[in-house]
Amino acid sequence: MSETQTSEGPNVPAVESGIPEAELERLTDEIVTALKTVYDPEIPVDIYELGLIYKVDIADDRQVAVEMTLTTPNCPSAAELPGMVEGAVASVGGVSGVTVNLTFDPPWDQGRMSEEARLALNLW
């Protein structure tokens, strides 16, 4: 066995989607675009570029599950941001439903921000 072999071997099943690839790409692109319309009211950068979105899963029935965090557990926007995310993603054509789950594991830090966000907030 090679020392460079990873734990993912040939027996790891590929994730197959019941959604055609072109449709899945369109949904993904439009969901990201929708997420970029949601801003933390206290920070002039969208939540996607801030790195608050940890995961987006699109099920075969087009139900979307979003896992996100907040900049801090006691963020004043905790009550409104998940609803804003749900509304933005639900507005994408073809999405049949949205579930938003908040997590603080791992905790958010500035390293999750995009270069665009760092530039906007002058964090260089």
UniProtKB/TrEMBL annotation:
Q: Where is the signal peptide?
A: none
Start and end residues of each MIP18 family-like domain: 29-100
Query: Looking at the record, which segments are called Disordered?
Result: 1-20
Q: Which residues form a coiled coil?
A: none
Output this protein's name: SUF system Fe-S cluster assembly protein
- What species is given as this protein's source? Ancylobacter koreensis
Tell me the classification of the organism that encodes this protein: Bacteria, Pseudomonadati, Pseudomonadota, Alphaproteobacteria, Hyphomicrobiales
